[in-house]
Amino acid sequence: MIPSHPRLNELLQEVRARGSVSVESLAEKFGVTLQTVRRDVQRLAEAGLVARFHGGVRVPASTTENIAYRQRQALQAEGKARIARAIAQRIPNGCSLILNLGTTTEAVARELLQHKGLRIITNNLNVASILSDNPDCELVMVGGTVRHRDRGVVGEAAVDFIRQFKVDIGLIGISGIESDGSLRDFDYREVMVARTIIEHSREVWLAADHSKFNRPAMAEVARLPQIDLLCTDAAPPEPFPALLSDAGVELVVAD
């Protein structure tokens, strides 16, 4: 599991923002020694989050495969917790929701344990396990193929099941938001489920920590105008403020 030291997360975001960067530049930016940066880079590389080259570090080249679930659980954990609290405060008792896959939606589920009268549909076995402890929540589990690496339920059966419903709020996570206004993910089966959730929700809320901005992934889920609200943990970088405004997306920064 990736260490949770704040500097490691900050270093990772710097690499993602710049694509590639020298070890010297990182040492200067974070006010630490070259040895410290090399040690941090080694820990990130061992977790598969960055790739090393002589004198520097870059983002991994792949846009086709997400990082491992346990690594995602550790990344941005504090920011995800803030996002979850902010979203939970906006969800009224007595409404219907769909929660999809992702460690951020799982954090939201933990914040809903005291809500009453919710009817929640989910294709995430982790979310179902969390919310089964809320006796005042009616929980509906989507059927389909279980993806063992993160206990997500995907596939045509899951899509067909969700099509039966129309909920007040569809809460989705995402792997990346690109500067062309597209929301992206890695597994096409998961993408098809997310698209169906969007189509069958009166409002669509996106929960995404700041590391998702400018992160590439292969498959397009949706475009920003299809989203009603975006909750993140830090102010989005350029050009996203203008993109969000033009798309009519309400931005909530949980700080």
TrEMBL record:
<protein>
    <submittedName>
        <fullName>DeoR family transcriptional regulator</fullName>
    </submittedName>
</protein>
<dbReference type="GO" id="GO:0003700">
    <property type="term" value="F:DNA-binding transcription factor activity"/>
</dbReference>
<keyword id="KW-0678">Repressor</keyword>
<dbReference type="InterPro" id="IPR001034">
    <property type="entry name" value="DeoR_HTH"/>
</dbReference>
<dbReference type="InterPro" id="IPR018356">
    <property type="entry name" value="Tscrpt_reg_HTH_DeoR_CS"/>
</dbReference>
<dbReference type="InterPro" id="IPR050313">
    <property type="entry name" value="Carb_Metab_HTH_regulators"/>
</dbReference>
<dbReference type="Pfam" id="PF08220">
    <property type="entry name" value="HTH_DeoR"/>
</dbReference>
<keyword id="KW-0805">Transcription regulation</keyword>
<dbReference type="InterPro" id="IPR037171">
    <property type="entry name" value="NagB/RpiA_transferase-like"/>
</dbReference>
<dbReference type="GO" id="GO:0003677">
    <property type="term" value="F:DNA binding"/>
</dbReference>
<keyword id="KW-0804">Transcription</keyword>
<dbReference type="Pfam" id="PF00455">
    <property type="entry name" value="DeoRC"/>
</dbReference>
<feature type="domain" description="HTH deoR-type">
    <location>
        <begin position="4"/>
        <end position="59"/>
    </location>
</feature>
<dbReference type="InterPro" id="IPR014036">
    <property type="entry name" value="DeoR-like_C"/>
</dbReference>
<dbReference type="InterPro" id="IPR036390">
    <property type="entry name" value="WH_DNA-bd_sf"/>
</dbReference>
<keyword id="KW-0238">DNA-binding</keyword>
<dbReference type="InterPro" id="IPR036388">
    <property type="entry name" value="WH-like_DNA-bd_sf"/>
</dbReference>
